[in-house]
Amino acid sequence: MTTDANSPSAPSARVVLVDDDPLVRAGLRMILGGDRSIEIVGEAGDGLEAEEVVSATQPDVVLMDIRMPRRDGLATTEALLAQRPDLRIIVLTTFDADDMVLGALRAGATGFLLKDTPPERLVRDVLAAAAGEPTLSPSVTAQLIAAVATPSAPGDGRIPDEPSARRTCARERLARLTERELEVAQAIGRGLSNSEIAATLFMSVPTVKSHVGKLFTKLEVENRVQIAICVHDAELD
Question: Which residues form the HTH luxR-type domain (predicted)?
């Protein structure tokens, strides 16, 4: 959605850019700033600076580099969402199998994008994130989890190497679901879209959407990615 040039209404998305490379930030600013629905309200070169900028500007969306000096994108995502659970954070990475991306998604990031994402897709996903929609395609969800969901090295300060504890916790959460809701959750874990789930489980798309909404509430998650991670941790996918 693009704001009409004569409309006095505010932009649909207020965005902060967080990346330690000034050239990357300049490129993002040029791409996103060209859309009238988006306003770049701040920039930061590392995670510590990002906290200050986000506090001062109160954006809707943060584009977050995952690997930065002083404080990385994972720790910064956790810190920002602890202060503002409604904040939409899209992590940026050069690698589509970055182990830190999974950590950020576990922490509640809305999704992730590669830094070479086409401009039109970048704009579309930022606006979708601001509207509360996922910015990670179902197929990429499955690929990412399959690629990087391995135990972290002990003592790395990120995801604890406790697969059995994660499995137990995930299974306890999934036990809250009805049989049908569990089927939908497992389908999301396999990377299926709503239409694919509808066809596979012989339901209408609106019914699938209703089940997904209940999963968000019962599993206490913010997006489909976290549903898929829960299913993966429970070893039910």
Answer: 170-235
